[in-house]
Design brief:
Layout: H1 14-20, H2 29-35, H3 54-61, E1 65-71, H4 74-94, E2 100-106, H5 113-125, H6 139-146, H7 151-154, H8 159-171
Parallel strand pairs: 1-2
C-alpha cells in the first residue's frame, strides 16, 4: 500500500523487553525515538499485546490516544476495569494523560445474545469511550491475516473491510484516506 510503513510486532521483540530493563529512562525510549520521526508522518499507529510490560509501557507513554479493541463478552468487559485501573496508576506514576481513550467492539456478532448484552453493558458504563463503529465478526479478516494481506486488498468489498473503513473514518475524519 502506498504511503504505508509497517513495522509488525512479533516474537522477535522479546529480547527488546529484556534489554530495556538495564537502560536509563527505559520507560521513555520509544517516546524519544518516535519524537525524532513524528514530523515525517500524519499518523503513527502502534499495536500491542494485552499485557503491561516495559515494551507496552513504552508504547503507552509514546501515545497520544489509546484504542482498546474488546470482544463483546463479559471477560473483556471485566478486563476493561483492570485496564483503566492500570492506566490510572500509569498516569499518576508518570504524570501522563491520554488525549483520548477509545473502546471499540471487535469480532461482534449481533445474533448472539451475549454480544448484545456485553454491548449494552459497555454503552452503560463506558459510553464516553465507546466508538460508534464496531467491527463485525468476519472470517475474511482471519483469512487475510493468514496469508499476510491487509483485508482491504484481500476482500475490499467484504463487511470486514467496510467496517474497518468506517472505523478509520470515525477515528480520522479529516485525514484523506484512500483504499
Amino acid at each position: 500500500m502506498e504511503n504505508l510503513k509497517l513495522i509488525p510486532a512479533n516474537l522477535d521483540l522479546s529480547p527488546v523487553e529484556l534489554a530495556l530493563t538495564s537502560m536509563n529512562a527505559r520507560e521513555q525510549r520509544l517516546r524519544k525515538t518516535i519524537a525524532s520521526i513524528q514530523d515525517d508522518f500524519d499518523v503513527i499507529v502502534m499495536d500491542a499485546s494485552p499485557s503491561i510490560g516495559l515494551l507496552n509501557l513504552n508504547g503507552i507513554l509514546a501515545s497520544n490516544d489509546l484504542f482498546v479493541p474488546v470482544l463483546a463478552d463479559f471477560l473483556s468487559y471485566h478486563g476493561l476495569k483492570i485496564l483503566f485501573e492500570t492506566l490510572s496508576t500509569i498516569e499518576e506514576d508518570f504524570d501522563f494523560i491520554f488525549e483520548n481513550i477509545y473502546i471499540f467492539l471487535n469480532n461482534y456478532n449481533a445474533s448472539h445474545n451475549i454480544c448484545q448484552r456485553a454491548k449494552e453493558a459497555l454503552e452503560t458504563h463506558y459510553n464516553g469511550y465507546l466508538m460508534k463503529t464496531l467491527i463485525r465478526q468476519d472470517i475474511k479478516i482471519a483469512e487475510a491475516a493468514s496469508v499476510g494481506m491487509p483485508i482491504h486488498q484481500f476482500a475490499p468489498k467484504n463487511r470486514g473491510s467496510l467496517d474497518l473503513n468506517a472505523f478509520i473514518r470515525e477515528v480520522f475524519p479529516n485525514l484523506p484516506i484512500v483504499f
